[in-house]
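Project standup — Tuesday

K.O.: blocked on the structure for the chain from last sprint. Re-posting the sequence here as requested.
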Amino acid sequence: MEYTYYPGCSLTKTSKPYDLSTRAVFRALGLGLHELEDWNCCGATVYMSVKETVSFSISARNLALAEKMKRDVVAPCSACYLVLNKTNRFLRELPDLNAKVNDALSAAGLYYGGTVRVRHPLEVLINDLGIEGVAAKARRSLKGLKIAEYYGCQIVRPQRGFDDMEFPQTMDRLFEALGAENVYFPLKVRCCGGMLMTTANDVAMKLCHDLIACAQGNGADCIVTTCPLCQMNLAAYQDQLSAKFGEDLHMPILWFTELLGLALGLDVRTVGLNAHLERIPEKILSLAA
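H.V.: unblocked you, prediction finished:
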């Protein structure tokens, strides 16, 4: 099985371990990832606030380039996954917008016919390979590790998404099959605060506190997520969170592909665990021994 890979901006910089582990996991599972040539920013949210047509055109350029490859697009970043799916949906449902966007694309000699399917790597693994197929290739058991699966507020939001919007279970079932124990984590789709960390810090800090405190209170050894911004907010501010709330709020925040990579027999450097801001405890690092 072959896929076009859209890493997005975060995975090339602050979330590089997510990129490394995603590529490594797909290789280990015999799935081909081919990076989209000359890709650009998905458009994120800032463009939408400036001008809707510009935002959709920026996003659609990636889809037009990918359409030439005739493969599904895999987008690990939750925001990229959401934005590219949103663009797909709007262009299919709104003919006038479609015409404006394709007129803009024509200036670069591009056209988007709406045939690209945008997918998240978690969904690809679950639906194309299957949990049993992934588990069959595991080289290490995650037995003894207690996990809080954190999906965030974007990955399950696209219309007709691949999991339940309020109580998703795909990551839970995957890691349970690999031997881990899933702790009770009712905040699994609660927002981390997103960009509020830079504009309304007190609000975002409280949201992050609640997420980490909930995971700790239910006995988790780590939080596992699918979103670069969630990972950054929860991992980078742990010293400040601990000082602000008078609690020890230090906990490893892992991308799901990192932990999956360890289960598949990959080493710490290959999945990027050596490049985290927060301390990764020996209990997790020893899985690669």
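K.O.: great, moving the ticket to review. The domain at 139-288 is CATH 3.40.50.11810 (Rossmann fold). The first strand starts at residue 2 and ends at 5.
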